[in-house]
Design goal:
With about 600 residues, the chain is α/β, with parallel strands linked by helices. It has 19 helices and 25 strands. Helix 8 packs parallel to helix 14. It binds 2-deoxy-2-amino glucitol-6-phosphate.
């Protein structure tokens, strides 16, 4: 997810672009750039780092132009760097483009352009092929060249195009990535999202899929896939900027909870190849490599560590390889046994958590192979790894990690299935069956979001508790730890998670009348055991809110309240059961008046040991 913006009109485009990008930085902030037609030259300024670095670099240049495009990046292909930053230009430098999305067949197009037409590429991005394709098809009609280029492209893209030969045109294209047009007097705008344009206009056009837009200072023309002109009603926007950045959600945290189905989709579908197998671009672990590996460590912190706990279950189930999960701040001081037959898996949203990074570097020193599951492309953990699995959750702004967690679970299911195929523990049929189950998760997650109102009500009844207990068995224990962490970091309630079977060995002493116990009972193979533990706390007066799979009626007899997630396989249930727990923590925090997106004492990325 990146942010794009464009301007054509009589004003100086440069400040309009910078201001617009500033409102889009929540979409990506690892590099930024602009391209503008200054005189009859296409000038490009782009740098790795936050937008303000770009702004500081171009300020003294006093650039002036009436047409330009700008981009703030969330890297997916090609690490954050000056050369991989957008805009990208064609070989002649006469055409510049910006892009949000992924050109999924970029490798084939790139190979064709290099081998058949000797095109010289500058970057590692998928995006650069677009600039070269447009130039390849350009014969004096920019719109025609754009149409021919997109005919070759597969994937998701919102693209902005300017050309030295067409100072009176700004062209944009939309396919499965957001694109809006802002209408002004003698000027017009494009952007990924409304916040970028609200300072200039409240008259917007929402561009549909497969539409191409030609903007001039005087007007805007929308064309459909068949190059027919399309009429579009003007949308009058009444939102304020802050609200718009959150796309109408009150906070980034609840917005990101609602983005989980998309994160799960993107993380999975972009790696399914034509044969129904997986394509892992940056993982080169083959059957021989895996045969060498006799020990796997999963090491991480906080929420990422909890994802690792479920990763262990997936790898041991699908690949039958023993896995040790450890918290990074303890790992390298526990004198772990590591050698060249060890696979060390680091998990991190930010990729900058120092405890995880130091553990990774220690394991590497000891000879381990390093695989990382990371959300931020080009982050330190990724750069120090031999193999990388990027979770495509998009930027996670809320300090409490939500969508990164569920995409990390998806990553582990996929990696475990892949390992099971490599070492023969998983059959072709078994793989195909599980792949269908993974494909179904996105829809089940959509359904689970419907629990929001129920969680808001339960939170309004329970937000005054000083302590809360989470219990579960099997994978439900792992989710209990994550649910408890979410509640702690968002509501500041002293909550506690424990394996349900462990209660009677001491913790049950804390149970008294109306003690709130949230019992996760989604593991059907452990259901009866969990029920007896729920009876134990009920017998001491606890108020029990249970989480169970749909169709499980009997639990209603023992719990005070039941939250039903859609039916699914036990191993996949954590993806769904964590979502009402995230929503519960969010609404309890709201009811307690906390700053949900920036909880006290916490940082989004902990870069100290
Ligand atoms: C989770 O909500 C917290 N923000 C925190 O526990 C976090 O998971 C931990 O600091 C690890 O961060 P990382 O995934 O960026 O490495």
């Amino acid at each position: 997810m990146c942010g794009i913006v464009g301007y054509i009109g009589s004003k100086n485009a440069v400040p309009v672009l910078i201001e617009g990008l500033d409102k889009l930085e929540y979409r990506g902030y690892d590099s930024a750039g602009i391209a503008a037609l200054s005189g009859d030259e296409v000038v490009v300024h782009k740098y790795k780092g936050r937008l303000r670095y770009l702004a500081d670099r171009i300020k003294p240049l006093q650039l002036s132009a009436n047409v330009g495009i700008g981009h703030t990046r969330w890297a997916t292909h090609g690490e954050p760097s000056d050369v991989n930053a957008h805009p990208h230009t064609s070989e002649s430098g006469e055409i510049a483009i910006i892009h949000n999305g992924i050109v999924e067949n970029y490798a084939q197009i790139k190979e064709w352009l290099i081998n058949e037409h000797g095109v010289a590429f500058k970057s590692d991005t998928d995006t650069e092929v677009i600039a070269h394709l447009i130039e390849y098809y350009y014969e004096g009609d920019l719109l025609d060249a754009v149409y021919k280029a997109i005919d070759r492209m597969e994937g998701a893209y919102a693209v902005g195009v300017i050309s030295k030969h067409h100072p009176d045109q700004l062209i944009a294209v939309r396919k499965d990535s957001p694109l809006i047009v802002g209408l002004g007097q003698g000027e017009n705008f494009i952007a990924s999202d409304i916040p970028a344009l609200l300072k200039h206009t409240r008259d917007m056009l929402l561009i549909e899929n497969d539409e191409v837009v030609v903007l001039t200072p005087q007007g805007v023309t929308i064309y459909d896939a068949l190059r027919q002109v399309v009429e579009r009603d003007v949308l009058k926007v009444t939102w304020d900027v802050a609200a718009a950045e959150k796309e109408g959600y009150a906070h980034f945290t609840i917005k990101e909870i609602h983005e989980q189905p998309k994160g799960l989709h993107d993380t999975l579908y972009r790696r399914i190849n034509a044969n129904g197998g997986f394509n892992f671009e940056q993982i080169n672990i083959g059957a021989d490599d895996l045969r060498q590996i006799n020990r796997i460590y999963i090491v991480a912190c906080g929420t990422a560590y909890h994802a690792g706990l479920i990763g262990k279950r997936a790898i041991e189930t699908f690949a039958g390889i023993p896995v040790t999960v450890d918290i990074a701040s303890e790992f390298r001081y526990s004198d772990p046994f590591i050698d060249h037959q060890t696979l060390f898996i680091a998990v991190s949203q930010s990729g900058e958590t120092l405890d995880t990074l130091q553990s990774l570097r220690y394991a590497k020193q000891m000879g381990a192979r390093i695989l990382s599951v990371v959300n931020v492309v080009g982050s330190s953990v990724a750069r120090d790894s031999d193999d990388i699995f990027y979770t495509w959750a998009g930027p996670e702004i809320g300090v409490a990690s939500t969508k990164a967690f569920t995409t990390q679970l998806m990553a582990f299911y996929m990696l475990a299935l892949h390992m099971g195929m490599l070492n023969g523990r998983m059959t072709e049929e078994g793989f195909a069956e599980w792949l269908e189950k993974l494909k179904g998760i996105e829809t089940l997650a959509e359904q689970t979001l419907a629990l929001e109102h129920a969680m808001q009500r339960i939170a309004s009844e329970q937000f005054n508790n000083d302590s809360v207990f989470f219990i579960g068995r099997g994978a439900d224990v792992d989710v209990s730890y994550e649910a408890s962490l979410k509640l702690k970091e968002l509501s500041y309630i002293n909550s506690f998670a424990i394996a349900a079977g462990e209660l009677k060995h001491g913790t049950i002493a804390l149970m008294e009348k109306d003690t709130l116990v949230i019992a996760l009972a989604t593991q059907t193979h452990l259901y009866e055991k969990t029920v007896s533990n729920i009876r134990e706390v009920k017998a001491r007066g606890a108020y029990v809110v249970a989480v169970a799979q749909a169709g499980n009626e009997s639990i209603k007899e023992i719990a005070d309240e039941v939250i039903y997630i859609p039916q699914c396989d036990d191993l996949l249930a954590p993806v769904l059961s964590v979502m009402p727990m995230q929503m519960f923590a969010y609404y309890v925090a709201l009811d307690r008046g906390n700053d949900v997106d920036k909880p006290r004492n916490l940082a989004k990325s902990v870069t100290v040991e």
